[in-house]
Write a structure and sequence with these properties.
The complex is a heterodimer of chains A (about 500) and B (about 160).
Chain A (H helix, E strand, L loop, with lengths): L1 H13 L2 H19 L5 H8 L8 H26 L8 H12 L3 H34 L4 H18 L4 H16 L1 E2 L6 E2 L13 H19 L13 H10 L4 H16 L4 H15 L12 H16 L1 H7 L5 H12 L7 H5 L1 H33 L3 H20 L2 H19 L5 H24 L10 H30 L1
Antiparallel strand pairs in A: 1-2
Chain B lengths: L12 H26 L3 E2 L2 E2 L3 H23 L9 H42 L3 H22 L8 H6 L2
Antiparallel strand pairs in B: 1-2
Helix pairs in contact in B: 1-2, 3-4
Classes of the chains: A mainly alpha (about 500), B mainly alpha (about 160).
């Protein structure tokens, strides 16, 4: 068992005192980010990324991934106590979590949510530990055509799986590709799409886009609702925790199902948000007390939280083994790898063993630390929420500006961030998905490179993408994902026009 | 959020939807134009720089055309947002634009102080004491964390120069 030895080595890396300290800091910051409106996992990590430039990559990824776990935990706190989902993936948690809190059972709801999150994450990490090295080993044999096919599949699944209209998904995604193409062409060294603007020589940095689209855009959406903010109280004590823990094993079936849904949706780049909704929906249909869902059923908290956390965690599997991130936050982490000088993809498992296994080990420890932190510190985090938005909003805006500036030490980027912010607000209001846009900015250059290299090899024939069994299978899966939505769309249109 | 009672008015959702589709479509045209300038055919080194973005641009224009078509078809009478809500949004966008625009000249710290103070005082309606505490405290904390601890330089203006930082 070479993997097991590697994993133990990874634990040794993650258990260094410096890394443990970063882990706790990351979790705490992450929960705060998850609790605050306008700061989410993706742009929280993006803002803090420049701070890690001087750290060793392993420590940096441990801290940043812990921010991500923290944000996943934190989203549940606001959903349950205030009926305000701190993150999109915790929307489904409000359905039963908030009624439970109103019935005087906030402690039970929070304990159930945190524990389910932990179970979901643990399941996903075990899956990553077992599957990632295999996938990476398999992917080592990929040529440019196979690489492009994997990107193709990833982006097609976005079109097929997202709940937004498919052509809006395509439009948003292609905008991302176009923005990624701006600047120096990596193959010919030629400038393109800059229209003589020198600031665009290096193209658009996706970190700026993430901070603008997710951070500023989210603040603007919140401002629509005005500055009013309702407060609430939370107490959680050991007795409630233990009592809830005794109840939870009865729902093992829901947990297992949610874990599987989450892992599946996380590996395909659908992400945590649809996973949580889907898991909630299925649990509602299958549960014995399904009719009570929405009135404060503990199972209605377990299902979405488990799935969201499993999805959020397993989104790192394709990022590590294939270099294709499964969620916007994973995309930001992937961008971090590039900045630290690491090449994401299967070679990581060969060349950067310490990094990969340190990260995987930190996932086990980070989620355990996260569970302890959130269970013990809920009142403190709830208090942060009671700081009025009139104070929080300008501070978040300033933080976003600092984050955008420090990526390249450029004030032009800060202005760009604001433009992206307004764009994000408009796109979100018009129901365009932002995740594929961001992923396309991150992966655009790599996808294009793989595409052009494949064509070079085949002298321009598209047949290269169907030249062997492997690449044809991936491409065919991609096409099915792509046209899956088109078929559904056509079918439902036909039905509405008939009706 | 956007479902409003009859008493409130604002731009229709449909108008914004159409505007968005047109805007994205125009962006697609710019991409196509730029790709044509970079060359979309095959050169000595294989596909030229504009080859890939050209098709991306074409896809944007195509998708936007369909989005435009479906936007002008359906009209559910929904509002995009009420004027009051848009005023709220603009009351953040405009000062943020001024904040961002002034940063190259007066530095991040002074700009942040003014921005936070303005936001809290006029939008939040806080007492001056609270306002000043937060508006001064946050940039000072930022300075300590970023410049001293993590050694990340942030833009400075004449005021910091005068302080000798």
């Amino acid at each position: 068992m070479e993997e097991l030895a590697n994993l133990f080595h990874g634990f040794a890396v993650a258990l260094q005192p410096y890394n443990i300290m970063l882990m706790i800091i990351g979790i705490t910051l992450g929960v705060i980010i998850g609790v605050l409106p306008g700061l989410g996992g993706a742009n929280g990590v993006a803002i803090l990324l420049p701070l890690t430039f001087s750290m060793p990559p392993t420590s940096a990824i441990i801290m940043l991934s812990c921010i991500y776990w923290g944000a996943l935990f934190g989203g549940a706190i606001t959903s349950i106590l205030f009926n305000i989902p701190g993150e999109p993936w915790s929307v489904a948690t409000t359905f039963d979590g908030y009624p439970m809190a109103q019935q005087g059972k906030p402690g039970e709801a929070l304990t159930a949510a945190f524990t389910s999150s932990f179970v979901g994450a643990l399941f996903a990490v075990i899956m990553i530990t077992l599957v990632a090295p295999l996938v990476a080993g398999f992917a080592l044999r990929f040529g440019p055509a196979e690489k492009f096919a994997v990107y193709f599949l990833a982006f097609c699944s976005f079109v097929g799986l997202s709940k937004e209209p498919p052509f809006k998904t395509i439009a948003a995604m292609m905008m991302g590709f176009a923005l990624a193409a701006v600047g120096l062409d990596s193959i010919t060294g030629q400038l393109r799409l800059t229209f003589g603007v020198t600031e665009l020589l290096n193209g658009f940095d996706f970190l700026i886009a993430v901070i603008g689209l997710f951070g500023i855009g989210e603040i603007l959406l919140t401002m629509e609702e005005g500055l009013a903010f309702r407060g609430g109280n939370a107490t959680i004590n050991l007795r409630v925790v233990l009592q809830t823990w005794r109840e939870l094993p009865a729902y093992w079936m829901t947990s297992l199902r949610s874990c599987l849904i989450g892992c599946w949706m996380g590996v395909t780049p659908a992400g945590a948000t649809p996973a949580s909704f889907m898991s909630y929906g299925i649990a509602k249909r299958l549960a014995r007390r399904g009719n009570n869902f929405g009135k404060g059923e503990i199972e209605g908290v377990i299902a979405p939280e488990t799935a969201a956390h499993a999805a959020g965690t397993s989104a790192l599997l394709p990022m590590l083994s294939l270099g294709v991130p499964g969620s916007p936050t994973a995309a930001v982490l992937l961008g971090g790898l590039l900045i630290w000088g690491l090449q994401p993809g299967p070679m990581l498992f060969v060349e950067q063993k310490e990094f990969v296994w340190g990260l995987i080990a930190s996932m086990y420890l980070g989620n355990l630390a996260g569970l302890i932190v959130v269970l013990t510190c809920v009142p403190i985090f709830a208090a942060i929420l009671r700081v009025p938005f009139g104070i929080i909003a300008p501070l978040i805006l300033v933080l976003c500006a600092i984050g955008a500036y420090s990526v390249h030490n450029s004030t032009f980027d800060v202005m760009l961030m604001l433009v992206f912010g307004v764009l994000g607000y408009l796109l979100k209001k018009c129901n365009y998905p932002l995740a594929p846009l961001v992923l396309a900015i991150v992966l655009g250059d790599k996808a294009e490179e793989a595409f052009r290299q494949s064509l070079l090899g085949s002298h321009g024939s598209l047949g290269v993408f169907f030249s062997n069994g492997l690449v044809s299978t991936i491409m065919a899966l991609g096409l099915v994902a792509l046209f899956w939505s088109a078929i559904q769309e056509g079918y439902s249109r036909l039905r509405t026009s008939m009706a | 959020m956007t479902e409003q009672s009859g008493s409130e008015s604002g731009p229709a959702h449909k108008t914004l939807e159409i505007g968005m589709a047109l805007l994205i479509g125009a962006f697609g045209l710019v991409v196509i134009f730029g790709s044509l300038k970079a060359g979309i055919n095959w050169g000595a080194e294989g596909p030229r720089a504009g080859f890939f973005p050209f098709y991306v641009g074409a896809a944007i224009v195509g998708a936007s055309a369909i989005n435009l078509w479906s936007a002008q078809r359906g009209d559910d009478g929904r509002l995009f947002a009420s004027w009051g809500q848009l005023r709220q949004v603009m009351s953040v966008v405009v000062p943020t634009a001024i904040y961002v625009g002034s940063m190259p000249f007066i530095g991040l710290y002074v700009a942040s102080m003014v921005f936070i103070a303005w936001f809290m005082r006029w939008l939040g309606g806080y007492r001056w004491l609270t306002v000043i505490a937060v508006a001064v405290g946050m940039p000072v904390l930022t300075y300590l964390v970023f410049e001293r601890w993590f050694l990340v330089p942030l833009p400075k203006g004449p005021f910091e120069e005068w302080l000798g930082l």
